[in-house]
Amino acid sequence: MRDQDDGEHDGGEHDGGEHDGGEHDGTRSGEQDRHDACAGAGDGGAARGDGAQDPEPRRGRPRSAAAERAILDAVITLLEAGEPLAGLSIERIARTAGVGKATIYRRWTGKEELFVDVVRDMEPVDPPVSGTEGLADLRVMLESLRTRGLAQRSSVLLHNIFAQMKSHPKLWDEYSGTVIAPRRELMLAAVRRAVAAGELRDDLDVELIDDLFVGPMLVRTVHRPDAPLPDDLADRIIAALVQGLAPARA
Predict the structure, then answer these.
(1) pTM of the prediction?
(2) SS3 of 44-86
(3) With the CA atoms of 156, 157, 158 and 161 taken in that order, what torsion angle do they form, in degrees rounded to the nearest 10?
(4) Which residue, 47, 68, 69, 105, shows the most beta carbons closer than 10 Å to its own?
(5) Where are the alpha helices (DSSP H) in the chain?
(6) Which long-range contacts link 217-220 to residues 24+ away (Cβ below 8 Å)?
(7) Angle CA(239)–CA(234)–CA(225) in degrees, nearest 5?
(8) Which of 104, 74, 79, 89 is nearest to 13 (CA)?
């Protein structure tokens, strides 16, 4: 069933003004523009049948969760069928999802943005952190990194997607900037809280401390795919770093 909220019709939308290379020049059919004008006319206050004005006029067309789900699922379906990321076009994705290309471009500026959301949809959801704790929040984020590593090991598709992403700099940069960088900032903030709370030394560079915590987990999850990822790995990493590696002196 098509997304009625988007005001588009299967097979009836003219997409000639959009490009599959990931750039949207904003050109749309006259029929769509007329529909947009009608949909946006309520911004100044739509009159009801009783002559009163709606107190909160609708601004634009609502995004349909069903349409977004269909688009994400379409990409996954094509990838599961063996299509490489580089070979997927917006037109092909739209046809598989049963939507118009404009529906995709209203949500994502291009393929890179869309593919990053597909990966995030397949990965385990990032758990919430308190934002006030130090080592406790670090543990939550290290555990999240471990579970993402397990997900990549158990999903051939997810593993292959990451392998392909790394061979496409533009796509990897998009993922790094929108997913990895924010996660790193959360880790750094937790390290700073741990230092401020006296849980960690205050005479070391914060980024170095962060690398010392994240490094062992990254080695296990990325560089050593055959290495064990036990349930208590995050706790063991934290304990080793906090207690130190030198033997206890008598």
Answers:
(1) 0.71
(2) HCCECCCCCECCCCCCCCCCCHHHHHHHHHHHHHHHHCCCCHH
(3) 120
(4) 105
(5) 30-40, 65-80, 90-97, 101-105, 111-122, 135-154, 156-166, 169-175, 181-196, 206-218, 233-243
(6) 217/142, 217/145, 217/146, 217/149, 218/145, 220/146, 220/149
(7) 130
(8) 104
Residues 58 and 42 sit within 8 Å (Cβ to Cβ): yes
Do 111 and 90 contact (CB within 8 A), yes or no?
Answer: yes
CB 55 within 8 A of CB 48: no
What are the pLDDT tens digits along the chain (250 aa)? 434 444 444 443 444 334 444 344 433 343 343 344 333 333 433 343 444 444 343 333 446 899 999 999 999 999 999 999 989 999 999 999 999 999 999 999 999 999 999 999 999 999 999 999 999 999 999 999 999 999 999 999 998 999 999 899 999 999 999 999 999 999 999 999 999 999 999 999 999 999 999 999 999 999 998 999 999 999 999 999 999 988 877 6
Q: In a 10 Å sphere around its CB, with 0-12 CB exposed, 13-18 middle and 19+ buried, how is residue 36 labelled?
A: middle
The backbone torsions φ and ψ at residue 47, rounded to the nearest 5 degrees and listed phi first, read -80, 135
**Length of the chain as a residue count:** 250
Q: How far apart are CA 189 and CA 198, in angstroms?
A: 14
